[in-house]
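Methods: holo model generation. Sequences were used as deposited, without trimming of termini or removal of tags, and paired with ligand SMILES retrieved from the corresponding compound records. Each pair was processed once, and we did not select among multiple samples. The sequence and magnesium ion SMILES for this entry were:
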Amino acid sequence: MTEHSTLEKLAQALDGYRLAPRLVEQGRVLSVGDGIAWVRGLPSAAMDDLLEFEDGSRGMVFALAKTRVGAILLNETENLTAGTVVHRRGRVLSIPVGDGLLGRVVDPLGNPLDGLDIPACHARLPLDAPSPPIIARDFVQTPLYTGCKIVDTMIPIGRGQRQLLIGDEGTGRSTLALDTVIHQRGQNVFCVYVLIGQKRSTVVSTLETLRQYGAMEYTTVVVGEAFALPGLKFLAPMAGCAIAEYWMRRGRDTLVVYDDLSTHAYTYRELSLLLRRPPGREAYPGDIFYLHSRLLERSTRLAADHGGGSMTALPIVETQQGEIAAYIPTNLISITDGQIYLDRNLFASGFRPAIDIGRSVSRIGGKAQHPRIKEEAGRMKLDYLQFLELEVFTRFGAKLEQTMARKLKRGRVLREILKQDRLHPLPIGFHLAWLIAFNEGLFDEMSQSEVSTWMNRLEGYVRESGLGLEDAREVWLTHLKEWFA
Ligand SMILES: Nc1ncnc2c1ncn2[C@@H]1O[C@H](COP(=O)(O)OP(=O)(O)O)[C@@H](O)[C@H]1O
Ligand SMILES: [Mg+2]
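and the model returned the structure below.
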Protein backbone atom coordinates (compact mmCIF):
# COMPACT_ATOMS: atom_id res chain seq x y z
CA MET A 1 0.00 0.00 0.00
CA THR A 2 2.67 2.47 1.03
CA GLU A 3 4.89 1.40 -1.85
CA HIS A 4 2.10 2.02 -4.23
CA SER A 5 1.39 5.53 -2.99
CA THR A 6 5.07 6.42 -3.08
CA LEU A 7 5.29 5.40 -6.71
CA GLU A 8 2.16 7.36 -7.44
CA LYS A 9 3.63 10.47 -5.87
CA LEU A 10 6.84 10.05 -7.83
CA ALA A 11 4.90 9.71 -11.05
CA GLN A 12 2.93 12.83 -10.22
CA ALA A 13 6.09 14.77 -9.53
CA LEU A 14 7.74 13.62 -12.74
CA ASP A 15 4.64 14.47 -14.69
CA GLY A 16 5.30 18.15 -14.53
CA TYR A 17 9.03 17.83 -15.17
CA ARG A 18 10.45 19.27 -18.34
CA LEU A 19 14.00 18.65 -19.35
CA ALA A 20 15.83 21.91 -19.89
CA PRO A 21 19.43 23.06 -19.80
CA ARG A 22 20.41 24.73 -16.52
CA LEU A 23 23.35 27.03 -16.04
CA VAL A 24 25.53 26.22 -13.07
CA GLU A 25 28.59 28.27 -12.47
CA GLN A 26 31.51 26.14 -11.49
CA GLY A 27 34.75 27.70 -10.46
CA ARG A 28 38.14 26.23 -9.82
CA VAL A 29 40.74 27.14 -7.24
CA LEU A 30 43.75 28.87 -8.75
CA SER A 31 45.83 29.02 -5.61
CA VAL A 32 45.37 28.63 -1.89
CA GLY A 33 47.41 29.63 1.14
CA ASP A 34 47.58 31.92 4.21
CA GLY A 35 43.87 31.44 4.80
CA ILE A 36 42.78 32.75 1.42
CA ALA A 37 41.99 31.24 -1.96
CA TRP A 38 41.92 32.66 -5.49
CA VAL A 39 39.18 31.23 -7.66
CA ARG A 40 38.43 31.60 -11.36
CA GLY A 41 35.27 30.80 -13.24
CA LEU A 42 32.69 32.47 -11.00
CA PRO A 43 31.75 35.52 -13.12
CA SER A 44 28.59 36.36 -11.18
CA ALA A 45 30.16 36.13 -7.73
CA ALA A 46 29.55 39.18 -5.52
CA MET A 47 31.21 40.43 -2.35
CA ASP A 48 30.34 38.38 0.78
CA ASP A 49 29.00 35.45 -1.29
CA LEU A 50 29.55 32.13 0.39
CA LEU A 51 31.61 29.58 -1.50
CA GLU A 52 31.61 25.85 -1.05
CA PHE A 53 34.63 23.88 -2.17
CA GLU A 54 34.31 20.31 -3.36
CA ASP A 55 36.52 19.00 -0.55
CA GLY A 56 34.20 20.44 2.12
CA SER A 57 36.07 23.69 2.75
CA ARG A 58 34.09 26.92 2.86
CA GLY A 59 34.95 30.49 2.07
CA MET A 60 33.55 33.96 1.61
CA VAL A 61 34.19 36.28 -1.33
CA PHE A 62 36.36 39.15 -0.14
CA ALA A 63 37.87 40.63 -3.31
CA LEU A 64 36.75 40.87 -6.92
CA ALA A 65 39.23 41.08 -9.78
CA LYS A 66 38.69 41.00 -13.52
CA THR A 67 39.16 37.31 -14.11
CA ARG A 68 39.18 35.87 -10.61
CA VAL A 69 37.75 36.31 -7.16
CA GLY A 70 39.58 36.20 -3.85
CA ALA A 71 38.00 34.43 -0.90
CA ILE A 72 38.78 34.20 2.79
CA LEU A 73 38.55 30.65 4.08
CA LEU A 74 36.12 29.85 6.90
CA ASN A 75 37.25 26.28 7.22
CA GLU A 76 39.87 24.42 5.30
CA THR A 77 40.49 20.71 4.77
CA GLU A 78 43.84 19.21 3.82
CA ASN A 79 42.50 18.40 0.37
CA LEU A 80 41.96 21.96 -0.71
CA THR A 81 44.42 22.58 -3.55
CA ALA A 82 44.67 24.32 -6.89
CA GLY A 83 42.07 22.81 -9.19
CA THR A 84 39.45 22.06 -6.52
CA VAL A 85 35.93 22.76 -7.81
CA VAL A 86 34.01 25.64 -6.22
CA HIS A 87 30.31 26.57 -6.15
CA ARG A 88 28.49 29.61 -4.91
CA ARG A 89 26.13 28.95 -2.02
CA GLY A 90 23.64 31.64 -1.13
CA ARG A 91 24.39 35.03 0.24
CA VAL A 92 24.43 35.90 3.87
CA LEU A 93 26.67 34.37 6.48
CA SER A 94 24.66 33.75 9.65
CA ILE A 95 25.17 32.28 13.08
CA PRO A 96 22.84 30.36 15.44
CA VAL A 97 21.68 32.61 18.28
CA GLY A 98 19.59 32.18 21.40
CA ASP A 99 19.64 31.18 25.05
CA GLY A 100 21.25 27.86 24.10
CA LEU A 101 24.51 29.82 23.79
CA LEU A 102 24.63 30.82 27.45
CA GLY A 103 27.55 29.17 29.16
CA ARG A 104 29.02 28.08 25.84
CA VAL A 105 32.29 28.63 24.02
CA VAL A 106 31.88 28.87 20.26
CA ASP A 107 33.86 29.86 17.19
CA PRO A 108 32.67 32.77 15.01
CA LEU A 109 30.47 30.41 12.99
CA GLY A 110 28.71 29.09 16.11
CA ASN A 111 30.54 25.74 16.23
CA PRO A 112 31.16 24.55 19.79
CA LEU A 113 34.74 24.72 21.07
CA ASP A 114 33.99 23.37 24.54
CA GLY A 115 33.64 19.72 23.52
CA LEU A 116 29.88 19.74 24.12
CA ASP A 117 26.99 19.28 21.67
CA ILE A 118 26.05 21.84 19.06
CA PRO A 119 24.23 24.63 20.98
CA ALA A 120 20.46 24.22 20.88
CA CYS A 121 19.36 27.35 19.03
CA HIS A 122 16.29 27.79 16.87
CA ALA A 123 17.11 31.17 15.40
CA ARG A 124 19.90 32.45 13.18
CA LEU A 125 21.06 36.01 12.63
CA PRO A 126 23.35 37.39 9.94
CA LEU A 127 26.85 38.28 11.10
CA ASP A 128 26.62 41.60 9.35
CA ALA A 129 23.52 43.66 10.00
CA PRO A 130 22.52 47.30 9.71
CA SER A 131 22.50 49.29 12.92
CA PRO A 132 19.10 50.16 14.42
CA PRO A 133 17.62 53.37 12.92
CA ILE A 134 17.48 56.54 15.02
CA ILE A 135 13.75 56.21 15.73
CA ALA A 136 14.30 52.75 17.22
CA ARG A 137 16.81 54.13 19.71
CA ASP A 138 16.50 55.68 23.11
CA PHE A 139 18.85 57.66 25.33
CA VAL A 140 21.29 55.85 27.55
CA GLN A 141 19.79 56.25 31.01
CA THR A 142 20.42 53.15 33.11
CA PRO A 143 23.85 52.59 34.62
CA LEU A 144 25.94 49.55 33.86
CA TYR A 145 28.07 48.97 36.92
CA THR A 146 31.57 47.70 36.33
CA GLY A 147 32.31 47.21 40.01
CA CYS A 148 35.44 49.34 39.55
CA LYS A 149 35.68 52.24 42.01
CA ILE A 150 37.23 54.66 39.53
CA VAL A 151 34.93 53.83 36.62
CA ASP A 152 31.61 53.70 38.46
CA THR A 153 32.27 57.00 40.21
CA MET A 154 34.26 59.12 37.75
CA ILE A 155 33.87 57.53 34.29
CA PRO A 156 30.37 56.03 34.56
CA ILE A 157 29.04 53.74 31.85
CA GLY A 158 25.37 53.49 30.87
CA ARG A 159 23.57 50.55 29.32
CA GLY A 160 23.84 50.88 25.54
CA GLN A 161 27.06 52.91 25.68
CA ARG A 162 30.25 52.14 23.78
CA GLN A 163 33.25 52.68 26.01
CA LEU A 164 36.76 52.08 24.72
CA LEU A 165 39.43 50.47 26.91
CA ILE A 166 42.70 51.79 25.61
CA GLY A 167 46.30 51.26 26.70
CA ASP A 168 49.59 49.47 26.11
CA GLU A 169 49.81 45.73 26.41
CA GLY A 170 49.83 44.49 30.01
CA THR A 171 48.17 47.53 31.56
CA GLY A 172 45.09 45.61 32.73
CA ARG A 173 42.58 46.22 29.93
CA SER A 174 41.37 42.63 29.73
CA THR A 175 41.29 42.41 33.51
CA LEU A 176 38.98 45.43 33.75
CA ALA A 177 36.67 43.97 31.09
CA LEU A 178 36.64 40.57 32.76
CA ASP A 179 35.89 42.08 36.18
CA THR A 180 32.99 43.94 34.59
CA VAL A 181 31.56 40.71 33.19
CA ILE A 182 31.96 39.01 36.56
CA HIS A 183 30.18 41.91 38.24
CA GLN A 184 27.08 41.41 36.05
CA ARG A 185 26.09 38.42 38.16
CA GLY A 186 22.53 39.00 39.30
CA GLN A 187 22.30 42.26 37.31
CA ASN A 188 20.18 40.77 34.53
CA VAL A 189 22.75 41.45 31.82
CA PHE A 190 23.73 38.77 29.29
CA CYS A 191 27.39 38.99 28.34
CA VAL A 192 29.38 38.05 25.26
CA TYR A 193 33.16 37.96 25.55
CA VAL A 194 34.88 37.97 22.16
CA LEU A 195 38.51 36.88 22.10
CA ILE A 196 40.26 37.86 18.88
CA GLY A 197 43.65 36.45 18.03
CA GLN A 198 44.54 35.66 21.66
CA LYS A 199 47.02 32.99 22.73
CA ARG A 200 45.57 29.64 23.76
CA SER A 201 46.82 30.23 27.33
CA THR A 202 44.92 33.55 27.53
CA VAL A 203 41.78 31.90 26.22
CA VAL A 204 42.05 29.13 28.81
CA SER A 205 42.70 31.46 31.73
CA THR A 206 39.81 33.74 30.68
CA LEU A 207 37.45 30.77 30.57
CA GLU A 208 38.73 29.48 33.89
CA THR A 209 38.16 32.83 35.56
CA LEU A 210 34.64 33.14 34.15
CA ARG A 211 33.77 29.63 35.35
CA GLN A 212 35.34 30.11 38.76
CA TYR A 213 33.24 33.22 39.41
CA GLY A 214 30.02 31.68 38.14
CA ALA A 215 29.89 34.10 35.22
CA MET A 216 29.38 31.50 32.50
CA GLU A 217 25.71 31.15 33.49
CA TYR A 218 24.95 34.40 31.70
CA THR A 219 27.90 34.57 29.30
CA THR A 220 28.87 33.32 25.84
CA VAL A 221 32.51 33.29 24.81
CA VAL A 222 33.35 33.67 21.12
CA VAL A 223 36.90 32.65 20.27
CA GLY A 224 38.96 33.30 17.15
CA GLU A 225 42.32 32.14 18.50
CA ALA A 226 45.72 33.35 17.37
CA PHE A 227 46.30 30.40 15.06
CA ALA A 228 42.73 30.18 13.76
CA LEU A 229 42.13 31.02 10.10
CA PRO A 230 42.43 34.79 9.65
CA GLY A 231 38.94 34.74 8.16
CA LEU A 232 37.55 33.51 11.47
CA LYS A 233 39.45 36.09 13.50
CA PHE A 234 38.07 38.71 11.16
CA LEU A 235 34.48 37.53 11.69
CA ALA A 236 34.70 37.08 15.49
CA PRO A 237 33.49 40.55 16.57
CA MET A 238 30.56 40.47 14.14
CA ALA A 239 29.59 37.05 15.48
CA GLY A 240 29.66 38.25 19.09
CA CYS A 241 27.62 41.28 18.13
CA ALA A 242 24.97 39.15 16.38
CA ILE A 243 24.64 36.93 19.46
CA ALA A 244 24.02 39.96 21.69
CA GLU A 245 21.74 41.53 19.09
CA TYR A 246 19.33 38.62 19.39
CA TRP A 247 18.93 39.21 23.12
CA MET A 248 18.83 42.97 22.76
CA ARG A 249 15.91 42.77 20.32
CA ARG A 250 14.07 40.65 22.87
CA GLY A 251 14.34 43.40 25.45
CA ARG A 252 17.41 42.14 27.28
CA ASP A 253 20.34 44.19 28.47
CA THR A 254 23.59 42.84 27.07
CA LEU A 255 27.30 43.55 27.32
CA VAL A 256 29.84 42.70 24.63
CA VAL A 257 33.61 42.81 25.13
CA TYR A 258 35.78 42.91 21.99
CA ASP A 259 39.25 41.81 23.12
CA ASP A 260 40.78 43.30 21.06
CA LEU A 261 40.06 45.39 17.97
CA SER A 262 43.73 46.14 17.26
CA THR A 263 44.25 42.48 16.47
CA HIS A 264 41.06 42.60 14.45
CA ALA A 265 42.44 45.50 12.42
CA TYR A 266 45.75 43.65 11.86
CA THR A 267 43.84 40.63 10.62
CA TYR A 268 41.76 42.73 8.28
CA ARG A 269 44.91 44.40 6.98
CA GLU A 270 46.60 41.03 6.47
CA LEU A 271 43.64 39.63 4.53
CA SER A 272 43.26 42.76 2.46
CA LEU A 273 46.93 42.89 1.52
CA LEU A 274 46.94 39.19 0.61
CA LEU A 275 43.92 39.81 -1.58
CA ARG A 276 45.53 42.86 -3.16
CA ARG A 277 43.02 45.39 -1.98
CA PRO A 278 44.51 48.87 -2.16
CA PRO A 279 46.21 49.85 1.09
CA GLY A 280 45.63 53.21 2.76
CA ARG A 281 47.11 54.85 5.83
CA GLU A 282 49.50 52.55 7.77
CA ALA A 283 48.70 49.99 5.04
CA TYR A 284 45.22 49.43 6.49
CA PRO A 285 42.48 49.18 3.89
CA GLY A 286 40.61 52.44 3.49
CA ASP A 287 37.36 51.10 4.88
CA ILE A 288 38.69 50.00 8.27
CA PHE A 289 36.95 52.99 9.88
CA TYR A 290 33.70 52.01 8.23
CA LEU A 291 34.13 48.40 9.39
CA HIS A 292 34.60 49.35 13.03
CA SER A 293 31.97 52.06 13.11
CA ARG A 294 29.42 49.73 11.52
CA LEU A 295 30.20 47.16 14.20
CA LEU A 296 29.97 49.59 17.12
CA GLU A 297 26.89 51.37 15.78
CA ARG A 298 25.02 48.13 16.36
CA SER A 299 25.43 48.74 20.09
CA THR A 300 22.67 50.95 21.39
CA ARG A 301 19.75 51.27 23.73
CA LEU A 302 16.49 50.42 21.95
CA ALA A 303 13.34 52.45 22.54
CA ALA A 304 10.63 50.81 24.67
CA ASP A 305 8.38 50.18 21.66
CA HIS A 306 11.25 48.38 19.96
CA GLY A 307 11.80 46.00 22.84
CA GLY A 308 13.78 48.31 25.11
CA GLY A 309 16.87 46.11 25.20
CA SER A 310 20.43 47.38 25.10
CA MET A 311 23.88 46.40 23.98
CA THR A 312 26.78 47.94 25.86
CA ALA A 313 30.12 47.54 24.10
CA LEU A 314 33.57 47.49 25.66
CA PRO A 315 35.98 47.42 22.71
CA ILE A 316 39.63 47.09 23.67
CA VAL A 317 42.42 48.67 21.66
CA GLU A 318 46.17 48.52 22.09
CA THR A 319 48.56 51.44 21.95
CA GLN A 320 52.32 51.34 21.41
CA GLN A 321 54.24 53.36 24.02
CA GLY A 322 51.05 55.11 25.04
CA GLU A 323 50.60 56.68 21.60
CA ILE A 324 46.88 57.33 21.30
CA ALA A 325 47.26 59.34 18.10
CA ALA A 326 47.92 56.25 15.97
CA TYR A 327 45.42 55.39 13.25
CA ILE A 328 43.30 52.64 14.81
CA PRO A 329 43.17 54.17 18.34
CA THR A 330 42.06 57.58 17.01
CA ASN A 331 39.45 55.92 14.83
CA LEU A 332 38.02 54.04 17.77
CA ILE A 333 38.17 57.04 20.09
CA SER A 334 36.05 58.95 17.62
CA ILE A 335 33.56 56.12 17.14
CA THR A 336 32.96 55.38 20.83
CA ASP A 337 31.18 57.36 23.55
CA GLY A 338 34.27 57.70 25.67
CA GLN A 339 37.47 55.97 26.67
CA ILE A 340 39.15 54.54 29.72
CA TYR A 341 42.86 55.11 29.37
CA LEU A 342 45.18 52.66 31.13
CA ASP A 343 48.68 53.92 31.67
CA ARG A 344 51.87 51.89 31.76
CA ASN A 345 53.62 54.17 34.26
CA LEU A 346 50.70 54.16 36.65
CA PHE A 347 50.62 50.39 36.42
CA ALA A 348 54.34 50.18 37.16
CA SER A 349 54.00 52.57 40.10
CA GLY A 350 51.50 50.17 41.68
CA PHE A 351 48.38 52.22 41.04
CA ARG A 352 45.98 49.52 39.83
CA PRO A 353 43.64 49.59 38.00
CA ALA A 354 46.07 51.90 36.18
CA ILE A 355 43.40 54.30 34.94
CA ASP A 356 44.60 57.76 33.96
CA ILE A 357 41.63 59.77 35.18
CA GLY A 358 42.67 62.97 33.45
CA ARG A 359 42.74 61.31 30.05
CA SER A 360 39.64 59.17 30.48
CA VAL A 361 36.17 60.39 29.68
CA SER A 362 32.62 59.13 29.48
CA ARG A 363 30.60 61.38 27.20
CA ILE A 364 27.15 60.03 27.93
CA GLY A 365 27.41 57.84 31.02
CA GLY A 366 26.85 60.79 33.37
CA LYS A 367 23.20 60.90 32.34
CA ALA A 368 22.79 57.34 33.53
CA GLN A 369 24.61 57.87 36.81
CA HIS A 370 22.67 57.89 40.05
CA PRO A 371 22.39 61.53 41.23
CA ARG A 372 23.73 60.70 44.70
CA ILE A 373 26.87 59.11 43.28
CA LYS A 374 27.27 61.89 40.75
CA GLU A 375 27.17 64.60 43.37
CA GLU A 376 29.67 62.95 45.71
CA ALA A 377 31.95 61.79 42.90
CA GLY A 378 32.08 65.29 41.41
CA ARG A 379 33.57 66.69 44.62
CA MET A 380 35.99 63.84 44.99
CA LYS A 381 37.19 64.02 41.38
CA LEU A 382 37.95 67.70 41.70
CA ASP A 383 40.03 67.05 44.82
CA TYR A 384 41.88 64.29 43.05
CA LEU A 385 42.72 66.22 39.91
CA GLN A 386 43.91 69.18 42.02
CA PHE A 387 46.05 66.82 44.03
CA LEU A 388 47.67 65.33 40.91
CA GLU A 389 48.58 68.81 39.73
CA LEU A 390 49.92 69.77 43.12
CA GLU A 391 51.99 66.62 43.32
CA VAL A 392 53.77 67.40 40.08
CA PHE A 393 54.47 70.90 41.37
CA THR A 394 55.98 69.68 44.64
CA ARG A 395 58.40 67.40 42.79
CA PHE A 396 60.44 70.49 42.15
CA GLY A 397 60.95 70.83 45.89
CA ALA A 398 58.61 73.75 46.39
CA LYS A 399 58.03 74.64 50.02
CA LEU A 400 54.39 74.22 50.90
CA GLU A 401 51.93 76.12 52.99
CA GLN A 402 50.13 74.06 55.57
CA THR A 403 46.85 73.98 53.63
CA MET A 404 48.70 72.70 50.58
CA ALA A 405 50.45 70.02 52.62
CA ARG A 406 47.08 68.89 53.92
CA LYS A 407 45.66 68.74 50.43
CA LEU A 408 48.60 66.65 49.39
CA LYS A 409 48.13 64.23 52.26
CA ARG A 410 44.43 63.95 51.53
CA GLY A 411 45.18 63.21 47.87
CA ARG A 412 47.60 60.46 48.79
CA VAL A 413 44.95 58.88 50.99
CA LEU A 414 42.49 59.09 48.12
CA ARG A 415 44.94 57.39 45.82
CA GLU A 416 45.09 54.49 48.27
CA ILE A 417 41.30 54.38 48.38
CA LEU A 418 41.07 54.16 44.60
CA LYS A 419 43.37 51.17 44.28
CA GLN A 420 41.53 47.94 43.65
CA ASP A 421 42.59 44.33 43.24
CA ARG A 422 41.61 42.35 40.20
CA LEU A 423 38.63 39.99 40.51
CA HIS A 424 37.21 42.12 43.26
CA PRO A 425 34.33 44.15 41.80
CA LEU A 426 32.43 46.19 44.39
CA PRO A 427 28.76 47.15 44.70
CA ILE A 428 27.56 50.69 44.13
CA GLY A 429 26.31 51.11 47.72
CA PHE A 430 29.87 50.68 48.91
CA HIS A 431 31.07 53.36 46.49
CA LEU A 432 28.58 55.80 48.00
CA ALA A 433 29.84 54.94 51.49
CA TRP A 434 33.50 55.63 50.81
CA LEU A 435 32.68 58.72 48.75
CA ILE A 436 30.73 60.27 51.61
CA ALA A 437 33.36 59.22 54.11
CA PHE A 438 36.12 60.72 52.02
CA ASN A 439 34.27 63.94 51.26
CA GLU A 440 33.54 64.39 54.96
CA GLY A 441 37.19 63.91 55.80
CA LEU A 442 36.71 60.70 57.77
CA PHE A 443 39.83 59.21 56.18
CA ASP A 444 41.94 62.34 56.70
CA GLU A 445 43.77 61.33 59.82
CA MET A 446 44.71 57.90 58.55
CA SER A 447 48.12 56.87 57.32
CA GLN A 448 48.27 55.45 53.81
CA SER A 449 48.82 51.95 55.12
CA GLU A 450 45.73 52.08 57.31
CA VAL A 451 43.48 53.01 54.41
CA SER A 452 43.23 49.59 52.77
CA THR A 453 42.42 47.85 56.07
CA TRP A 454 39.65 50.35 56.73
CA MET A 455 38.31 50.05 53.20
CA ASN A 456 38.06 46.27 53.57
CA ARG A 457 36.24 46.60 56.86
CA LEU A 458 33.97 49.27 55.43
CA GLU A 459 32.95 46.87 52.69
CA GLY A 460 31.77 44.36 55.27
CA TYR A 461 30.03 47.05 57.28
CA VAL A 462 28.06 48.40 54.29
CA ARG A 463 26.93 44.88 53.38
CA GLU A 464 25.64 44.25 56.90
CA SER A 465 24.19 47.70 57.55
CA GLY A 466 21.60 47.33 54.78
CA LEU A 467 22.09 50.98 53.81
CA GLY A 468 21.58 51.78 50.14
CA LEU A 469 21.58 54.49 47.48
CA GLU A 470 18.12 55.67 48.53
CA ASP A 471 19.04 56.42 52.12
CA ALA A 472 19.50 60.10 52.89
CA ARG A 473 22.98 61.52 53.17
CA GLU A 474 22.42 62.42 56.85
CA VAL A 475 21.52 58.83 57.66
CA TRP A 476 24.65 57.58 55.95
CA LEU A 477 26.76 60.20 57.62
CA THR A 478 25.53 59.44 61.14
CA HIS A 479 26.19 55.75 60.64
CA LEU A 480 29.58 56.29 59.06
CA LYS A 481 30.75 58.78 61.68
CA GLU A 482 29.76 56.39 64.42
CA TRP A 483 31.50 53.51 62.71
CA PHE A 484 34.71 55.37 61.94
CA ALA A 485 34.92 56.66 65.53
N1 LIG B 1 43.78 45.75 39.38
C1 LIG B 1 44.78 44.89 39.28
N2 LIG B 1 45.43 44.47 40.38
C2 LIG B 1 46.45 43.60 40.29
N3 LIG B 1 46.91 43.09 39.15
C3 LIG B 1 46.32 43.45 38.00
C4 LIG B 1 45.23 44.37 38.00
N4 LIG B 1 44.85 44.56 36.74
C5 LIG B 1 45.66 43.78 35.98
N5 LIG B 1 46.54 43.11 36.73
C6 LIG B 1 47.57 42.18 36.23
O1 LIG B 1 48.28 42.77 35.18
C7 LIG B 1 48.59 41.85 34.16
C8 LIG B 1 48.16 42.38 32.81
O2 LIG B 1 46.76 42.51 32.78
P1 LIG B 1 45.90 42.26 31.46
O3 LIG B 1 44.50 42.52 31.81
O4 LIG B 1 46.21 40.92 30.87
O5 LIG B 1 46.48 43.39 30.51
P2 LIG B 1 46.11 43.74 29.01
O6 LIG B 1 44.84 43.05 28.66
O7 LIG B 1 46.00 45.23 28.99
O8 LIG B 1 47.26 43.28 28.18
C9 LIG B 1 47.89 40.56 34.54
O9 LIG B 1 48.82 39.67 35.06
C10 LIG B 1 46.90 40.97 35.60
O10 LIG B 1 46.70 39.95 36.53
MG1 LIG C 1 44.50 41.60 27.17
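The chain has three domains: 23-88, 94-367, 373-484.
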